[in-house]
Amino acid sequence: MADPGSGGNLPLALPPAPEEASSSASSGNPSHPHSLQGLLQMAVTACPGDPEPPPEPMTEERRQWLQEAMSAAFRGPREEVEQMKSCLHALGLPTPHAAGEDELAADQQEREGALELLADLCENMDNAADFCQLSGMHLLVGRYLEAGAEGLRWRAAHLIGTCSQNVAAIQEQVLGLGALRKLLRLLDRDPCDTVRVKALYAISCLVREQEAGLLQFLRLDGFSVLMRAMQRDVVKLKVKSAFLLQNLLVGHPEHKGTPVFHGDGPAAGGLLIRTEHSPFPRARAGGTLWPGDRFSPKGSGSAGRLSWG
């Protein structure tokens, strides 16, 4: 992720409080708070109710400190938007084709750093919405999902998932840009395992609890892509593909009749299915999901177990 010094989400710090005479500490007066939480606590405890000590006019020094404290509290969101604009500017620049090897490596490193910083910033849903308003998603889908460098492809897929997760408006924008087709292609064909895993993460964020995303997924034969992903020799990819498949079938059992789950098709190799009512593995090419298999939740949100031979 982004280096802490590169301007990611950092706790807001208040300006140092003005020094007071040592007599104020000895007299029992509270010291100035050093954080926004402390400032709020001071405001609560200073509410009227105790007549002593009598109110005193605010000194110019205290007034200035309070103004700086409030400015620090509201400066964060503005600075983060400026950081996103800077990242998008760097990502929008053309690739230096006539550059030397060192220059190309430095350019790629800068772009990867920009994508990482954006991923950190867009963990905040307000920042994710601002990122989309700045046309950041158009840049990711139109250019970086198909970038030549795998480090750019997987970071772009990760950022799409980060922005889209549980935000319907962003999911709809991403789906409208045709991202799901490209992500499924990455999951199915990309030579880099990390790209595949990150593409699967983004796909999951676009189709789980998202009806429009699921419909696109079905039209693009997404179940076949998931079945093929479960045959890869990458444990993380197998587990996450199986988890998404299971989640979709538990939430939408009507899709268990999809042809890919029956017969002796090539997508059916090697997956063992165990359910609460069938403890024995159903394993053979073409026997991945059988018509009689049932996914029975143990409790709210849980489902039958998936394993591999």
Automatic annotation (TrEMBL):
SUPFAM superfamilies: ARM repeat. The keyword DNA damage does not apply. Residues 1-41, 289-309 are annotated as: Disordered. Residues 19-35 have a biased composition (Low complexity). One of its GO terms (molecular function) is adenyl-nucleotide exchange factor activity. Signal peptide: none annotated. Residues 36-130 form the Nucleotide exchange factor Fes1 domain. Keywords: Repeat. The keyword Transferase does not apply. Pfam families: Fes1. One of its GO terms (biological process) is positive regulation of proteasomal ubiquitin-dependent protein catabolic process. It comes from the Eukaryota. This is HSPA (Hsp70) binding protein 1. It comes from Monodelphis domestica (Gray short-tailed opossum). The lineage of its organism: Eukaryota, Metazoa, Chordata, Craniata, Vertebrata. The gene is HSPBP1.
